[in-house]
Amino acid sequence: MVDAFRHADGPAPRRLGPFMRWCLSGAFPAIFVALALSVIVGLMELAAAWFVGWAIDSAQATGPDFLSTQVAALIAIGVFLAFLRPAVMALNAAMTSLALGPNLYPLILTRLNRHTIGQAMKFFDDDFAGRIAQKSQQTARALTDVVVETCNIFGFAIASTTGAMVLMGSVNVELAVVLIVWLALYILLIRWYLPRIRVRSRARASARAMVTGQIVDTVTNIATVKLFSHGDHEDRAAIDALGKFRGASLGFGRLVVGFRLTLFTLAGLLPVVLIGLTLHYWSVGTATAGDIAMAGLISMRLAQMSGWVSFTALGIFANIGEIEDGMRTLSPPHAIQDKPGAVWPAPQDAGIRFEGINFGYGREGSAALADFNLSIRPGEKVALVGQSGAGKTTVVSLLLRLYEIEEGRILLGDNDIRDIAQDGLRKQISVVRQETAMFNRSARENIRYGRIEATDAEVVEAARRASADDFIHELRDLHKREGYDAHLGERGVKLSGGQRQRIALARAILKDAPVLVLDEATSALDSEVEAEIQTALHEVMEGKTVVAIAHRLSTIAEMDRIVVMDQGRIVEEGTHEDLLSRGGLYARFWRRQSGGFLDLKAAE
Questions:
Q1: Confidence grade of residue 600 (pLDDT, cut at 50, 70, 90)
Q2: How far apart are CA 51 and CA 84, in angstroms?
Q3: Which end of the chain is less packed: N or C, by CB atoms within 10 Å?
Q4: Exposure of 601 by Cβ count < 10 A (0-12 exposed, 13-18 middle, 19+ buried)?
Q5: pLDDT above 80 (res 258)
Q6: CB distance 558 to 550 below 8 Å
Q7: Is 429 exposed, middle or buried (0-12, 13-18, 19+ CB in 10 A)?
Q8: If you classify domain 16-330 with CATH, what class do you get?
Q9: Burial degree of 285 (CB within 10 A; 0-12, 13-18, 19+)
Q10: What's the rounded Cα separation, in Å, for the pair 45 and 47?
Q11: CA atoms of 467 and 368, how far apart (whole Å)
Q12: Mean pLDDT across the stretch 505-520?
């Protein structure tokens, strides 16, 4: 009844009600069926109490002939209690435990994950990766629990309470009035406590996510922690985050204790008052023994139900607090969105033009690029050179539209990149970075990431051309998978730097995009490995428009053109020989590196 992997329509809303509906859209028919079954179960519970009262009164009225005169009615009641009622209760349980529970969590998480993947890079720059993952799972779990628990209790409670008022009123109107007053007090207490519980639950969820983010950040960078011997520092940071979580949990717990104590006291008063009043009416002849039994069963059942409702409502509002916390983190609109009718250009040897670009990552008074203009011809190989902070990586990030241009425009061929669908743009560009991203998946899957639909034969051919096929055949993992099936470990930790770069090059070869970006692709490798990689790089660059960033100037000396950047501007450009003859900034960089004296400021 629920398509567990259906994507939602439109962006995630920023308000709680619309956000929950967005997460649950498509599941409402199943939810309404579960609510209807809950109402039926509640009415059946009341019917059972009414049957007891009827049986006692009938037995008193007819005496020893009761069984013989009421045999048909008793058989019907027996069938109802022994077969029909359990069957409906089982169907209700199946709806919540099989149709809703197992499907809602993947449905919600699929939508949150899809929305998160579509966020711009700034969204991920400003938060812990572990915290984002924690919020997604927390929100999906909390909303699933809210729906399942609401379906379990909401219809049941309304049907039981309404039916109880009718049955009590049939005995004496004053009993119905007492029940209404009790219910009003119950609702008032819930309305006072639960919003406060929701606020404290939100604070607790935020503190828990910070703990997860801190621990994941430490584990992700465990090599750095060990190299600097800062295990104690990370332990103190985790304890600090855990201390805040403990404080938030204590504040939440104190409110919960007060809530449950108050409602349990109120629940204990209900059977005392209702049974006492019914006994009084029986003593004056206005109620029967069956009425006493029915009132006792109903009041005890309502008292039990009130505890169940309060406990469940506590969980529901605590979960709503967690949903609100997750919504605030996960639902911001996408900072970069495709225009309506955005184009998907066919792969082509297109030139690239940067025109009047000003960009500062949204920071006032800061310019990563200032009045930046650059034109790259189709098939031209251009290198970007400059100090750290000169703006080289920013140029690449804007070309890939990882950040939105603040002023100016970038053209790929004749198309402004803002008029191209983001996925369509990035299909045109292959990227090989210094820190090559590897998934903890097989070598085959990591290479195939360049083109998901590629065949196994094409994957192997790409690896061969990238000089990766030999070492891949020697791979083994802990689960005894070998070769292309062996998993590479998180971020490819089981591979050397040169091996990771060869996998990255194989991806780029497999993708076969017309534009190739090399972002410090060999700067972290030693000279011998770099020389081996250069051969594979020439294979990848063949017939492509290339934008290369490199600190080692020897790796880009053969480029068609070298562009020298400083403080977000182009200060020189030309061939390697031209720039050396001018004796400018590039020539100073070259002398420092080729002379063997590495000036850190220049080399960075």
A1: very low
A2: 15
A3: C
A4: exposed
A5: yes
A6: no
A7: buried
A8: mainly alpha
A9: exposed
A10: 5
A11: 37
A12: 89
Domain ranges of the chain: 16-330, 352-428+513-603
- CA-nearest of 331, 375, 354 to 417 is 354
Mean pLDDT on 516-535: 69
| Mean pLDDT, residues 338-347 | 82
Q: Beginning with the edge strand found earlier in the chain, give each strand of the sheet holding 545-549 in spatial order.
A: 429-433, 515-519, 545-549, 381-386, 561-566, 569-574
Question: Using an 8 Å Cβ cutoff, are 471 and 515 in contact?
Answer: no
Same fold, 16-330 and 352-428+513-603: no
- Can you say how many angstroms the Cα of residue 223 is from the centroid of all Cα atoms in its chain? 27
3-state DSSP of 174-220: HHHHHHHHHHHHHHHHHHHHHHHHHHHHHHHHHHHHHHHHHHHHHHH
Is residue 433 within 8 A of residue 522, CB to CB? The reply is no
Q: Is the distance from CB of 319 to CB of 331 less than 8 angstroms?
A: no
The pLDDT assigned to 562 comes to 94
- Angle, helices 289-330 vs 101-117, to 10°: value is 20
Which superfamily does CATH assign the domain made up of 352-428+513-603 to? Answer: P-loop containing nucleotide triphosphate hydrolases (3.40.50.300)
pLDDT in tens, 470-498: 999 999 988 889 999 999 877 667 788 78
The Cβ of residue 56 has, within 10 Å, a number of other Cβ atoms equal to 17
Task: Count CB-CB contacts under 10 A for residue 330.
Answer: 21
Q: Please state whether beta strands 381-386 and 407-412 pair in parallel, antiparallel, or not at all (unpaired).
A: unpaired
Q: What is the DSSP string of 330-351?
A: H-PPPSS-PPTT-B-PPP----
Spatial neighbors of 243 by CB under 8 A, at least 6 apart, are none
With H, G, I as helix, E, B as strand and everything else as coil, classify residue 363: coil
pLDDT tens for each residue of 183-229: 888 888 888 887 888 888 888 888 888 888 888 888 878 877 887 78
% residues pLDDT > 90 (the chain): 33
Is residue 530 a contact partner of residue 555, using CB atoms and an 8 Å limit?
Answer: yes
Backbone angles phi, psi at 303, to 5 degrees: -60, -45
pTM of the model: 0.71
Block residue for tokens 């029909």: 84
Give percent of the chain with pLDDT exceeding 70: 93
* Strand ranges of the sheet holding 415-416, from the earlier edge strand across to the other edge: 369-376, 352-359, 407-412, 415-416
Find the length of the chain: 604
Angle at 404 between CA 398 and CA 405, to 5 degrees: 70
- Nearest Cα residue to 418 out of 431, 402, 401, 430: 401
Quickly list H helices, 346-430: 392-399, 422-427
Q: How far is CA 423 from CA 44, 263, 266, 427, in A?
A: 56, 55, 60, 6
